[in-house]
Design goal:
It is built from nine helices and six strands. The protein has about 260 residues and is an alpha/beta fold. A six-stranded parallel β-sheet has the order 3-2-1-4-5-6. Helix 6 links the parallel strand 4 and strand 5. Helix 3 crosses helix 4. It is globular.
Length: about 260
């Protein structure tokens, strides 16, 4: 397995703007992957629950060999990202479908439009990684874990440093009704501390209720925010439409 932790991290580019992406459960669902921990499991010992999540999610990922929406996203970003922009990917999901697709499409070298070839997993991941690496990953976090389980690792430190004080954010498939996605509010509050004016947020969600919850939370929390989309849409349709909002903001080249 390639060592993604360090590959390309020190490469410098003359790209000064960073678009931060947050992928929630809905993004995986639209790519054909859905997993929720069975309710009866929640009575078990925590370590056993984590072990079973690793087993179940890893097995389920083997059955999802193609992720056409993630693939289309990555190829479009590779073709149309403006020269002074890069993209950074974060996710609340335990699966590593997006990371796997990045590794398939760009196996040798981090492309210049990508700020980091690693997808940052804010709730941990079942992705195999080297145990002797100095790069520590976030361990699997459960929705009902107390706050002290969320330890700062090298992975989360890098992610939060890269997120801090940025002004363009895209939220795909996040649901504040879905327990694993509820890390978004504290992240938003952290981001808010580093913002002086004018952050822009774009919500992509096919569920009207989920869209409205995230929309309302962002408006109520972030100073001077501009929300670039005012209605629900599927991830797939938004890509087919050319990610028009990102074109208008200059993140992508107009087509």
């Amino acid at each position: 397995m390639p060592n993604k932790e360090n590959k390309g991290r020190t490469e410098e580019h003359n790209r000064t703007n960073r678009c931060i992406w947050f992928f929630g459960s809905g993004a995986s669902i639209e790519n054909g992957f859905e997993y929720k921990e069975p309710e009866e499991r929640k009575k078990k010992d925590r370590n056993e629950r984590v072990m079973l999540i690793h087993k179940d999610v890893s097995a389920k990922m083997q059955k999802v060999s193609n992720v056409p929406i993630y693939k289309e996203l990555l190829l479009n970003l590779a073709s149309y990202t403006s020269k002074n922009w890069q993209h950074l990917f974060c996710t609340t999901n335990w699966d590593y479908l997006l990371q796997r697709e990045i590794d398939r499409l760009f196996p040798e070298k981090k492309p210049p439009w990508l700020n980091d070839n690693l997808v940052f997993h804010l709730n941990g991941t079942v992705e195999p990684h080297s145990e002797d690496s100095v790069f520590t990953r976030q361990s699997i976090l459960l929705p009902d874990d107390p706050l002290d389980y969320r330890k700062r690792t090298i992975e989360t430190n890098i992610a939060f440093t890269k997120i801090f004080a940025q002004k363009m954010f895209v939220v795909v498939g996040m649901s504040l009704n879905y327990e694993i996605d509820r890390i978004l509010p504290p992240i938003i509050e952290y981001i808010n501390d580093g913002i002086n004016f004018g952050p822009k947020w774009l919500i992509v969600n096919k569920c009207k209720n989920d869209f409205n919850l995230v929309d309302r939370y962002i408006k109520d929390t972030i100073r001077g925010v501009t929300l670039l989309r005012r209605e629900e849409i599927t991830f797939e349709k938004w890509l087919k439409n050319g990610m028009q909002e990102l074109q208008r903001e200059g993140v992508l080249i107009s087509t």
